[in-house]
Amino acid sequence: MHIGLLTPSFPPMVDGGVAIATGRLAQALLRRGHTLTVVTSLPPAQQKAEVVHDRLLLSSQLVADPAHAPSAVAALQQWLQARHQACPIDLLLAYFLYPAGYLATILGESLGVPVVCSCRGNDVTKDLFITPELIATVLERSTRLIFVSASLLHMADTLVPCRAKATVVANAVDSTVFTPALSRPLTPVVVGTSGLMRWKKGVDVFLPLVQRLCTTPSVRILLAGYGLDAAMEAHIADFLAAHDLHRQVEITGPLLHPQMVHALQRMHLYVSTSYQEGMPNGVLEAMACGLPVVATDADGTPELVQDGVTGYLCPMGDLAMLATRCRALIAHPALRQRMGQAGRQRVQQLFRPEQEAAALEAVLHQAWADRRTVC
Fold this sequence. Notes:
Elements: E1 2-6, H1 17-31, E2 35-39, E3 50-53, E4 56-59, H2 70-86, E5 91-95, H3 97-111, E6 115-119, H4 122-125, H5 127-130, H6 132-141, E7 144-147, H7 150-159, E8 166-168, E9 189-197, H8 203-213, E10 219-227, H9 230-242, E11 249-251, H10 257-265, E12 269-272, H11 281-288, E13 293-296, E14 311-314, H12 319-331, H13 333-350, H14 353-369
Parallel strand pairs: 1-2, 1-5, 2-4, 5-6, 6-7, 7-8, 9-10, 9-12, 10-11, 12-13, 13-14
Antiparallel strand pairs: 3-4
Helix pairs in contact: 1-14, 2-3, 3-6, 8-12
């Protein structure tokens, strides 16, 4: 099958969970014999380029705001039509309802091929309330829909009844790559988090939590990531300076995905203070590394973290409970060990890459079987 993949980011860009997911699934689809034409965003400070590998063509022509850029959409349409004539595309797979999903419905109609849209998080939890008309259009016009969590499907289904053509395909993690540390010192106790720090990640809760936990001299904080922009970087730096926390807090800055393994292996427990999450890759990776997780009950997170078994779930914004749960784990190494082992077992059983790839491929075949409805 020749699959046209539309995604806002794709390796070597790794600026969030979607790049990790699309890179992982692209490799799985190639191993299964499929051909891919990937249309993604232009990497910063680079010129438009096409990169060709064996059965993979990578082009940086994704339109950032297709609803308001008809000329750019027309140019991409012309390019993809030529690609289709040279090597017929069987279907389009889009990551996020907007812009990629919206764009895919336009291109799919032009090419006469089915469209599968993968709904990841922000496109439902945020865009549903900002641009409901655009989101509804994609939900209605997609041949098949994928949601990374049952909670996201439930939200989307309240806007447009779509359950009949939807499948939940959870994110996955390679537990042969993300593995527990062979050994780590009992002190200092490293409390960590990872990823791109922005307001939806609960920075307004995470920083005060750091302040509370750092009253214990044996605690260190590791933020394996960086701020969304200069304003966020400055906000974090100003908070740490105001509370004299720099000696106990380390911020790594951007990390390549393989480097994240080593960062997680330095931690004793993992924290997520998010307000919005589809199926958080950071939590999955932490669990694979044998870390107990203290997290807010945002969206799909409770589908990963079992409260009292693999970590603790707290109401969103509940700083006091987050601090209490973290302190319990800081004080009890045996509890950290038990919960961390249970979390690793959970991801090994339920969130394996081969399960994710097989489920995705099944949806693609369903959409291909449904093609008469769009041709």
